[in-house]
Amino acid sequence: MSHPDSIDPISLAGVKAKGKRPYFFKDADVERVLSITMAVAGELAVMRQRLDTIEALLDARGHVSREDIEAFTPSAEQEAARSRWNQEYIARILRILQQDREALSRPEEVTSEAAGNKLAED
């Protein structure tokens, strides 16, 4: 195992799977922005869990150490609450994609932009 100081996080950030990158959107820039957004969202989710750990330890003990944080294992109830939060969080982040997908099944529905333009014409 290598020493933690010998790890180069910059070079590790560039590691990718072999083969051509799959794209799901027509515009590669959209794909890039979504990828960045999801990476930041993942980091925030981890920070949220770490904060939840700190709060739980403070409630239980009144103090907290780094060792306490690293050794913490959430209860089944805490884990379920974290899981619910993560699901709701991802749903909020990806809401626009879900709404777009739902709109495909309702092409006759008027968009708010179209309604606004119609009102402006009248």
Topology overview:
Blueprint: H1 9-13, H2 28-61, H3 66-71, H4 76-93, H5 95-104, H6 112-121
Helix pairs in contact: 2-4
Tag the structure with descriptive keywords.
122 residues; mainly alpha; 68% helix
How would you sum up this structure, described in words?
- The chain has 122 residues and is mainly α.
- The chain has six helices and no strands.
- It has helices at 9-13, 28-61, 66-71, 76-93, 95-104, 112-121.
- The chain is flat and about 65 Å long.
- The model has no long low-confidence stretch (mean pLDDT 86).
- Counted beta strands: 0
Give helix % range. Answer: 55-70%
Please state the overall shape, judged from the principal axes of the Cα atoms: flat
For the largest beta-sheet, the strand count, sense and barrel status come to: none
Query: Nearest-angstrom radius of gyration?
Result: 22 Å
Short description:
This protein has 122 residues and is mainly α.
